[in-house]
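Narrative of accomplishments. A recurring question from our advisory board has been how the design workflow behaves on a single, concrete structure rather than in aggregate. To address it, we present the structure tokens for one chain from the evaluation set, followed by the sequence designed for it. No filtering or post-editing was applied between the two.
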């Protein structure tokens, strides 16, 4: 960046590389998580708890170094982010991808910005160009084709998995809005670290740390029907925590200010595409032509809606802010 705070061409290029890399790592995270669930060694709820506990430990040094001093109201906001912005979305997302193909779950989840736009329109009374709502309609149609266009139609997918994916989209939309009201004086990594700590307290009641199945960490987990070999469950869990949570989030925090939240959210749309390819290569989760077209149409609709929505001043709407974390 220049001294006046403007962004150089090289800085923007680096920003795109960082955000794109984060999205690819999150796509890989979905694949690794599905491998763990398919093994039967670790349940979705347990993995969600492990992810929060592990991220808390890794981000604790940043929080301790910052020594945040917040008002009671700010602490309540942090606690809400930890529960409704971190723990619940990750938990429900894991439950969804344990039941339906990762690409289908992700394309549903990534309609969350659409839900935020609807919230802005009918609750906050923010008027946006009509083409934004047209794009939203296109995205919804795309999701319908993605869900119903598989072999055997919608009945081929487990209904509970689809419902959980929809719940995840609403949870992710809530995460975006809760993230938008986090204490602005805190560095994003500190905000996230505090949120993870609050999430750890939440999980202490549902999946206490001392009751987690650490004995299963030595179990060998196959790498899928199309990839030979296996890895210990503990190694996959560590990969989900480090490469599926802490590192990509750090990349997002570093890259988003260089290109802006609007560009970051649109660049992040590569995750469902990458996840579709990885799921096909490693898990043999094949989509029909209709489903592929549905995914493309849905993501195109969300992308157009985000591009147009982010043309308005940032103070006038919620954005995919630097404190929001994809599932």
């Amino acid at each position: 960046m220049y001294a006046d705070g403007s962004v150089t061409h090289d800085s923007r290029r680096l920003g795109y590389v960082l955000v794109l890399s984060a999205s690819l790592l999150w796509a890989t995270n979905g694949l690794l998580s599905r491998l763990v669930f398919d093994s039967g060694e670790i349940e979705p709820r347990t993995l969600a708890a492990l992810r929060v506990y592990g991220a808390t430990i890794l981000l604790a040094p940043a929080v301790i170094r910052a020594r945040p001093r917040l008002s009671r109201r700010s602490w309540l906001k942090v606690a809400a982010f930890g529960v409704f912005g971190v723990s619940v979305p990750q938990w429900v997302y894991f439950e969804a991808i344990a039941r339906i193909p990762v690409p289908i779950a992700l394309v549903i989840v990534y309609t969350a910005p659409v839900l935020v736009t609807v919230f802005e329109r009918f609750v906050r009374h923010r008027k946006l160009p009509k083409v934004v709502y047209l794009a939203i309609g296109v995205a919804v149609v795309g999701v319908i084709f993605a869900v119903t266009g598989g072999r055997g139609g919608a009945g081929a997918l487990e209904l509970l998995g689809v419902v959980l994916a929809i719940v995840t989209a609403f949870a992710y939309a809530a995460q975006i809005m809760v993230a938008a009201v986090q204490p602005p004086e805190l560095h994003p990594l500190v905000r996230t670290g505090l949120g993870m700590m609050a999430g750890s307290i939440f999980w202490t009641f549902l999946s206490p740390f001392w009751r987690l199945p650490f004995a299963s960490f030595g179990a060998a987990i196959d790498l899928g029907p199309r990839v030979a070999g296996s890895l210990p469950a503990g190694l996959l869990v560590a990969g989900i925590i480090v490469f599926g949570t802490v590192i990509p989030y750090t990349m997002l925090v570093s890259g988003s200010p260089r290109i802006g939240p609007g560009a970051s959210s649109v660049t992040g749309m590569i995750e469902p595409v990458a996840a579709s390819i990885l799921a096909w290569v490693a898990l043999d989760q094949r989509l029909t032509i209709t489903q592929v077209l549905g995914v493309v149409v849905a993501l195109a609709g969300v992308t157009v809606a985000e591009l147009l929505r982010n043309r308005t001043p940032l103070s006038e709407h919620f954005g995919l802010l630097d404190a929001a974390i994809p599932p």
